[in-house]
Specification:
The protein is mainly beta and about 140 residues long. The protein has one domain: Beta Barrel (OB fold (Dihydrolipoamide Acetyltransferase, E2P)), CATH 2.40.50. It contains one helix and eight strands, in the order ββββαββββ. The chain has a five-stranded mixed β-barrel with strand order 1-3-4-6-5. A hairpin with a 5-residue loop joins strand 2 and strand 3. It is globular. The termini are far apart.
């Protein structure tokens, strides 16, 4: 029987991404993404923000590096992963992340909350959204 592990989020980048490199030179970009839910409750309008850790790998991370900054609104599609490790004091630690790499992974840069569009390179139309499909990134080209 087939299985599916897919997560879709729309939220705002919490801070500028951390960039690091693997031993073989591949790029890893990590950032936090905030999703906010609002509802009318007994005490009036209520709000809750959830923070999600996102890791973007390889050529996709390298291509997106100049565009993803604090406050940008993103559509993120990836898979849920659970990382476990032992810290320097011998304690077992774990975290949950969204991995954006390979088939089925996407990032779409959406308009800013104030209605302005994200910064675009000079040769792009101001109305173009930045759509990056992880499977479209190849050695020879950058998708935008």
């Amino acid at each position: 029987m087939a299985s599916l592990n897919r997560v879709t989020l729309i939220g705002n980048v919490g801070k500028d991404p951390d960039i690091r490199f693997t031993q073989n030179g591949d790029t890893i970009m990590s950032f936090s993404l905030a999703t906010t839910e609002t509802w009318d409750g007994k005490q009036g309008k209520q709000e809750r923000t959830e923070w999600h850790k996102v890791d973007v790998f390889g050529k996709l991370a390298a291509a997106l590096k100049p565009y993803i900054t604090k406050g940008k609104k993103l559509y993120v599609e990836g898979k849920l992963v659970y990382d476990e490790w032992t810290d320097k004091d011998g304690n077992k630690r774990n975290t949950t992340k969204i991995r954006v790499a390979g088939f089925g992974s996407n990032i779409i840069m959406l308009g800013d909350p104030g209605g302005k569009r994200n910064d675009a390179p000079a040769n792009d139309s101001p109305s173009d959204e930045k759509y990056v499909d992880a499977k479209a990134v190849s050695d020879d080209e950058v998708p935008f």
